[in-house]
UniProtKB/TrEMBL annotation:
Pfam family, one: adh_short
Protein name: WWOX-like protein
PANTHER family: RETINOL DEHYDROGENASE (PTHR24320), WW DOMAIN-CONTAINING OXIDOREDUCTASE (PTHR24320:SF282)
Alphabetical UniProt keywords: NADP, Oxidoreductase
The keyword NADP appears for this protein: yes
Family from the record: Belongs to the short-chain dehydrogenases/reductases (SDR) family.
Organism field: Mya arenaria
Amino acid sequence: MADGSLDTDSEDEIPAGWEERMTLDGDNYHMAGKGSLKMMELSSMWSFETARSLAFHGAHVVMACRNTMSAQTCRDLILAERPGVKVTVMKIDLASLNSVKEFADQYKQQEWPLHYLICNAAVFGLPYTQTEDGLEATFQVNHLAHFYLTKLLWTQLMTSAPARVIVVSSESHRSADLNILNLSEEKLSPLESGYWDLRAYNLSKLCNLLFSLHLNTLLCRYRVSSVALHPGNMMYTNLQRHWWLYRTIFYFVRPWTKSMQQGAATTVYCAIAPEMQAVGGMYFNNCCRCPPSSAGADDELAKALWDIIMDCLYL
Ligand SMILES: NC(=O)c1ccc[n+]([C@@H]2O[C@H](COP(=O)([O-])OP(=O)(O)OC[C@H]3O[C@@H](n4cnc5c(N)ncnc54)[C@H](OP(=O)(O)O)[C@@H]3O)[C@@H](O)[C@H]2O)c1
């Protein structure tokens, strides 16, 4: 657990940028106020709902996106609905570590605080692709780039404490076959001969969970917590765009899957629910704490993965 709980006795003790609010039951709670930021990588549909919801809660939302045109459209839609809210679009391409660094530098130049970093972007079902950094793309986009971004914004998180990193993982982490014995850079970022898109995705989603777990261990003493979550099963977004078969399967299960608002609910819950303020190192599904796979709760594996990624990034 992060030791970031807030004493709600006095208005004077509310951290800068936070405000005191009251629930329908009359209980006080604090949330990030107008001066605070939430940043996320998105422009997909349920992620749009997440941004919309957080902006409506009074946050300045910075949408870090590869496709800034579509992000701009999302921003315009949010502003058309509620003109006073603050939404900023910035460019990031997680398949390029240079782009991640450029984004982080630009963010720091703004001297904005960072109360919530939502690591949301991912790819699924990609044919084998190498990034400009020479790594397998699913691994880099879904895991390594989030790690790098978080490391680059480490100081911003700590100086904005209480702050939280929210990592969007998936229930499919349960199918990953990673353990302390087979963990290696080659396993995480395989060559074409050892690549299978589904395996790469599942592995990256387990890495998301382990990243969140170890990050929380390292930062909770600075009142920066981290949680991971599953947004919903097989929601029809752009995730399955890379292969007609996945598109077809996701299309046919649509009547039984979550709406985009429901998909956003667990992320929004993890960000702003009053009872989440001192919570870290856990995994959530359907707005409830949920036990991850045994690998997903393995502290030793999380630390070993962390060390390998630090080596990959020459950090
Ligand atoms: N859909 C589901 O059923 C489901 C289930 C479990 C977990 N999830 C997780 O939910 C999260 C969001 O997925 P989604 O379903 O909303 O899929 P999505 O519609 O494809 O959204 C993924 C987002 O990631 C962005 N992205 C991809 N590559 C990028 C890159 N190189 N640089 C920057 N951004 C990049 C995409 O941007 P572009 O628009 O530019 O491509 C898109 O905005 C993912 O972490 C996914 O693993 C989804």
